[in-house]
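Treating backbone geometry as a discrete language has practical consequences that deserve illustration. No coordinates are needed to read the tokens, only the vocabulary itself. For completeness, the protein is quoted in full, as a sequence line and a line of structure tokens:
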Amino acid sequence: MKYITYSHRYADVIINADYSIRKEIENIIEEISIEQIDVYYKEHNSSLLAQGKKAKKGKQTALNMIFRDKFKNNGWEVEKNVFGDKTNDLVIDFWKRKVGVDVAFNHRSFIGGDLLRLQAAGEVKNIINIGVYICGTSRFTKYLSASDSSSMVHFERVKWYLKNFYAVLTVPIWLIGLD
């Protein structure tokens, strides 16, 4: 899969300090294909229908499942709790060696909370040195869900948040937009 990046607060320099982690993240993304997403989507919907449930309209769940499998298979901790409190649901999707990765293919109203969670992980609890935020570009979200794309998180919108809340978001964030 092709992607574009944006570096908030020198995140590109920091991620390069652990170059093997950077390459691991890039390899995970590059291994994903449109065909693979389509296969996961069809299989997941078939499973839902067989259980008497409603099929998903968009492909977001399929892509999240692919990311979960790939990061887990590369030794990343899944759903790292930021505050170490099981009753608190602030979790980072994937965590390894002080790098936290959030994958966002949901409604744009979640952007602020996602970025605040990375901020808390870095500045309050010191469990990450850098956050990686993976989402789609506005073009890619149209592929994921034509009916929901205008309301989804996308690279251009998150980049706007990072630029406009620079003084508040002090944790380095490497933004990746699937294209």
